[in-house]
């Protein structure tokens, strides 16, 4: 087991889950003042439409007369260059990032490059990037890259705001969080088969994150208690990656499957939707309780079939076979070494096709 120095990991100094914009704004003001940042030293980064409206409601509560607001269009390297230029030119010391995963990812990445603070205020819960040290960015060919970024100094979540976000995004967040189950199992397989180092603290944190929602089967997806548990689980999942120093505790064979889809058949579904289907497959191959996982997803409307993530039978077979080639990481896929006949059989047995 790796040794861990508590001084070598960073976690958000503050996590607050509140129920309205007034409470969130009050918490944010305290954080900014404790950091010594206010007004002109802050760049407010957001997306379009609802994210921008919510940011405007925050700055109104804080009575900031002329806030410097930057609207992110895409999460590609061109956008990174533009945002870095604005931050440097205006001598900004802190980013307050208000929006979806795309907005928060680019904010964390730029903060890391410039060594400045970033505060995460997600307006939905579609993945664990709200608190992780990883950002997903697109290159000029629309290929996704997972890159090191700065873990947020603080994470603030307004449940009322999140509950208004599209249900599809919340379902994607469920898929991303539950996938920790198979990611952790893959890590344990790698430890046993190829003697890969495992970080037990990180592993425990990751599986605890998934368990935040796994026992809430009887609740509805828009239940406040469920959404708060989803938020806490995703935050904890992000922190597990900081503890391990990479994405290993929250990204295994199910994520390799999702990356394969991105490579071969881009823009068919959301990341968390693809990962959910991959989690069922991985759990089956790992001889886990895949039926329980599938039942949980079905209960909350998370995709469980190829057609629900925009793939035909032949396409999902190709993606599954391609998954071993997208990242050099030992998982159950490397252990079983599927061929086309085996892949089709697994997909049929799990009801994915």
TrEMBL record:
Q: Report the co-factor binding details.
A: Binds 1 zinc ion per subunit.
Q: Which UniProt keywords apply?
A: Cytoplasm, Lipid biosynthesis, Lipid metabolism, Metal-binding, NAD, NADP, Oxidoreductase, Phospholipid biosynthesis, Phospholipid metabolism, Zinc
Q: One biological-process term from Gene Ontology?
A: phospholipid biosynthetic process
Tell me the residue numbers annotated for binding NAD(+): 101-105, 123-126, 132
Q: Which cofactor does it need?
A: Zn(2+)
> SUPFAM superfamilies from the xrefs?
Dehydroquinate synthase-like (SSF56796)
Identification of the protein by name: Glycerol dehydrogenase
Organism equals Lederbergia lenta
Highest lineage ranks of the organism?
A: Bacteria, Bacillati, Bacillota, Bacilli, Bacillales
């Amino acid at each position: 087991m790796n040794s861990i120095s508590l001084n070598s990991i960073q976690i958000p100094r503050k996590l607050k889950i509140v129920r309205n914009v007034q409470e969130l704004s009050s918490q944010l003001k305290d954080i900014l003042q404790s950091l010594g940042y206010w007004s002109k030293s802050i760049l407010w980064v957001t997306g379009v439409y609802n994210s921008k409206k919510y940011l405007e409601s925050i700055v109104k509560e804080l009575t900031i007369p002329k806030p410097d607001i930057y609207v992110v269009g895409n999460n590609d390297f061109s956008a990174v260059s533009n945002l870095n230029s604005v931050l440097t030119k205006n001598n900004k010391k802190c980013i307050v990032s208000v929006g979806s995963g795309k907005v928060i990812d680019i904010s964390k990445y730029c903060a890391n490059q410039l060594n400045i603070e970033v505060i995460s205020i997600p307006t939905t819960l579609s993945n664990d990037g709200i608190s992780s040290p990883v950002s997903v960015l697109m290159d000029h060919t629309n290929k996704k890259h997972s890159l090191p970024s700065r873990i947020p100094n603080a994470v603030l979540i307004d449940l009322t705001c999140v509950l208004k976000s599209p249900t599809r995004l919340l379902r994607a967040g469920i898929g991303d969080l539950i996938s920790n189950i198979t990611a952790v199992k893959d890590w344990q397989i790698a430890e046993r088969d190829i003697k890969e180092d495992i970080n037990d603290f990180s592993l425990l944190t990751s599986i605890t994150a998934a368990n935040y929602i796994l026992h809430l089967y009887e609740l509805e997806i828009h239940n406040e208690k469920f959404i708060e548990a989803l938020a806490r689980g995703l935050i904890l999942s992000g922190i597990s990656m900081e503890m391990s120093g990479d994405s290993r505790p929250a990204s295994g064979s199910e994520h390799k499957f999702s990356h394969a889809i991105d490579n071969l058949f881009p823009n068919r579904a959301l990341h968390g939707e693809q990962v959910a289907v991959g989690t069922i497959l991985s759990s089956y191959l790992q001889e886990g309780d895949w039926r329980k996982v599938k039942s949980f997803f079905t209960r909350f409307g998370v995709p469980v079939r190829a057609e629900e993530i925009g793939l035909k039978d032949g396409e999902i077979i190709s993606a599954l076979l391609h998954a071993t080639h997208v990242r050099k990481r030992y998982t159950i896929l490397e252990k079983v070494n599927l061929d086309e006949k085996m892949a089709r059989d697994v997909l049929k047995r799990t009801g994915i096709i």
